[in-house]
Write a structure and sequence with these properties.
5-stranded mixed β-sheet, Aldehyde Oxidoreductase, domain 4, 3 domains, Aldehyde Oxidoreductase, domain 3, alpha+beta, about 725 residues, 25 strands
Length: about 725
């Protein structure tokens, strides 16, 4: 048994079940009399629905019901985490490729699929908004109807919001070097191994929904709103998902299956194909223009940034992604004057949502590439220019907000040493290094109940979702440490709104800090009760908790229940609604070898360094950072969604959408941490797990530039793109734009 769990590589709870196939995912759940749902789509992005003929499907064997917008409540219920703008089924027109216009409910999956093929949808393909240029063009069609936001002065445009951040006087700032560039980041999808899946069933006079969501309590609230039920009549059961990365953070088809279950009076099940999942979730794409002024010594004098982020057909959580990331669009640097203007744009494309990094990979692609450009122009080492500008610990790099909460230069030096910065390079090779910073949770509410049983074992009740990040294990470690019992004696219950107390959400790398502290506080509550019991019983100091329990409860037995919470309140006057509780800072460094004849990039070595405060489980942190790094290499080197002129995704599925395989991994990969116990979580911890991908793209691109002399500002760095730029630059000296 592990005697001191904090800082130990405790084996992941549920890990064996995951790798052996014993874990029960949504697709494994079977309920009596369960019906099956198949969605009906139109094969284009934007189309007017003229008519839907469901007669053949209604008459097909095994069909229980066929539902279109005409069969649902009027006005059509709409939902969303911030704006209630997304209809349960398309009304009048489809707004993105894959938006369902109908749903077939049948006795078997095969019957539902066959009947869906019989439905005839007469439609008229309409001009669509599929790019940033089109979204900004006043002549383009509107994606959303103006009456969905009647009081919004932008209701007759495709701009949901325009956000402004900044300080100082950019227009009068002096600079010796001004770097002015445009960067583009493509649409990419989450590609969780488990496609989206949903089950719903009537329960008493309410409904229960099974979904692999990251946010069971938000899901409960939104489903209740859609159905017009009290929250107490909606139960959400959330088994551990098979990957989420933000894509399972907010509702997609849960309101639909809940409604269908109530309409049919039976359990219903909807399993999306991988291709359908591609059509439902993606990262926000963007174009960023950055003007950065530098003094001759490499220090930044101003940042002037204008960005456009393509959200998709519905708002989902994209506006929050855009706001949070662009609030730190200048990076973790001292910037005397800054102006950031960012637009959140609608388009006839898959709605974008939360994705690991929450917009930080997009903005770091720009601010880190800007520093590289300045370094090349001024002759300053690329590591040195970062060290000269990095905010020091305790320094408010965004005026008036949470100051830098770590010795971030330590991470940079550690990564530079690990990559062999400054040592000789073979021909065709280059090294790059980049940093990124992400604002953590700005508001939050996590509650935990800990039950200390008569035999000294404990059960932790927590609303956090374990998506594979190991939250279940870390919470057990915290409880074991606080109660002084072996971690093997702790059980953690999650994923059922009827069984666990409220947690706002599992996002923003918050679980260790927020829920971890709530668990610790619940244990403190238990210890205080035990101390009171021991005093009342006249027990000597130092007796074990089991002895106290047995002396207090005797043969009748009983348990001690502790309650803990951690909250961060909403601040109406803060641009983000609250100050960041901590920052997730990371540094990535990469060494590459480029084949100039093909443009192919060989990853020789890749390093990540995360400032985590305290690694409660070092093995978990390493695994999370390595996984994040591989994900970051995906959007850096190969991943991008391809649309045709009709807004259709042309590379749906595993064959046509490239993600990294074992053959694409670096020859060497190293993940390291900086631990100074300077975080707000238990034992000085901060969040971790997103940092490994946030600065990957600029680090690899910087290495490619050193290896080839070319600068590429559009992702991904595909062999074709690299080869084309090399051909254009032949005969030129030094890096070229």
């Amino acid at each position: 048994m592990i005697t001191e769990p904090i800082g130990a590589a405790v084996r992941r709870g549920g890990g064996v079940a995951r790798v052996t196939g014993d874990q029960q995912f949504i697709a494994d759940i079977r309920l009596d009399r369960m019906l099956h749902v198949k969605l009906v789509h139109i094969d284009c992005g934007h189309a007017r629905i003229v008519s839907i003929d469901t007669s053949a499907a209604q008459a097909a064997r095994g069909v229980v019901g066929v539902f279109t917008a005409a069969d649902l409540p009027s006005p059509m219920p709409r939902f969303g985490p911030v704006y209630s703008d997304r209809p349960i089924l398309a009304i009048g027109a489809t707004k993105y490729h894959g938006q369902p216009v109908g749903a077939v409910v049948a006795e078997t999956k095969e019957a539902a699929e066959a009947a869906a093929e019989l439905i005839r949808v007469e439609h008229e393909v309409l001009p669509g908004v599929y790019s940033i240029e089109a979204a900004l063009d006043p002549k383009s069609p509107l994606v959303q109807e103006p009456d969905l936001r009647p009081d919004d002065p932008r209701r007759d445009t495709n701009v949901l919001n325009e956000l402004h951040f900044g300080w100082g006087d950019v227009d009068h700032a002096k600079a010796d070097i001004v770097v002015d560039n445009v960067y583009e980041f493509p649409m990419v999808t989450h590609f969780a191994i488990e496609p989206h899946a949903f089950i719903a069933a009537p329960e008493d006079d309410g409904v229960v929904v099974w979904t692999p969501t990251q946010n069971p309590f938000q899901m409960q609230r939104i489903i209740a709103q859609v159905l017009g039920l009290p929250v107490a009549k909606v139960r959400v059961r959330a088994p551990d998902p098979g990957g989420a990365f933000g894509g399972k953070q907010h509702p997609k088809y849960e309101p639909l299956v809940a409604l269908l279950a109530l309409r049919t009076g039976r359990p219903v099940r909807l399993l999306l194909t991988l291709e359908e999942t591609f059509q439902e979730v993606r990262r926000t794409s963007c174009r960023i223009r950055a003007r950065t002024g530098f003094q001759s010594d490499g220090t930044i004098s101003f940042q002037d940034i204008e960005s456009d982020f393509l959200m998709g057909a519905y708002a989902d959580i994209a506006e929050r992604v855009i706001a949070k990331s662009n609030y730190l669009a200048c990076g973790p640097y001292r910037v005397p004057a800054a102006r950031v203007v960012v637009r959140a744009l609608f388009s006839h494309t898959t709605p974008s949502t939360a994705f690991r990094g929450f917009g930080t990979p997009q903005v770091s692609w720009a601010h880190e590439s800007q520093l590289d450009d300045a370094a090349w122009r001024s002759g300053i080492d690329r590591v040195e220019i970062r060290l000269r500008n990095l905010a020091r610990k305790g320094e408010p790099f965004v005026p008036g907000d949470t100051p830098a909460d770590g010795d971030w230069a330590e991470s940079v030096r550690k990564a530079a040493d690990a990559i062999g910065w400054g040592t000789p390079l073979a021909k065709g090779r280059g090294r790059g290094l980049a940093v990124a910073v992400k604002a953590s949770a700005t508001t939050g509410a996590s509650y935990s109940i800990v039950r200390l049983h008569w035999d000294g074992s404990a059960t932790v009740l927590a609303g956090t979702s374990d998506m594979g990040q190991g939250a279940r294990t870390v919470l057990a470690q915290v409880a074991a440490h606080e109660l002084g019992i072996p971690v093997e004696w702790v059980s953690v219950v999650m994923g059922d709104t009827a069984a666990v107390p409220f947690d706002l959400q599992t996002s923003a790398s918050r679980s260790t800090v927020f829920m971890g502290q709530a668990v610790a506080d619940a244990c403190h509550d238990i210890k205080a009760q035990l101390e009171q019991m021991a005093s009342e019983l006249g027990l000597e100091a130092g007796v074990s908790l089991v002895e106290v329990l047995r002396a207090r409860f005797g043969e009748v037995r009983g348990e001690v229940i502790g309650v803990g919470s951690k909250r961060s309140e909403h601040l109406a006057d803060h641009p983000l609604g609250g100050a960041p509780s901590f920052y997730e800072f990371s540094c990535s460094a990469s060494e590459v070898e480029v084949d100039e004849g093909t443009g192919d990039i060989l990853l020789v070595r890749h390093v990540t360094v995360a400032d985590v405060g305290k690694a409660l489980n070092p093995q978990h942190v390493a695994m999370q950072d390595e996984g994040a790094a591989v994900m970051g290499l995906g959007h850096t080197l190969m991943e991008h969604i391809v649309l045709d002129d009709a807004g259709r995704i042309r590379n749906l599925g595993a064959l046509d959408y490239r993600i990294p395989t074992t053959k694409d991994l670096p020859l060497e990969m190293h993940s390291m941490t900086v631990e100074n116990a300077d975080g707000p979580g238990p034992y000085g911890s901060k969040g971790a797990g997103e940092g490994g991908l946030m600065a990957t793209a600029p680090a690899v691109a910087s290495a490619v530039t050193e290896a080839t002399g070319v600068v590429i500002r559009d992702l991904p760095l595909t062999p074709e793109r690299v080869w084309t730029e090399i051909q254009r630059s032949r005969g030129k000296d030094g890096p070229t734009s």
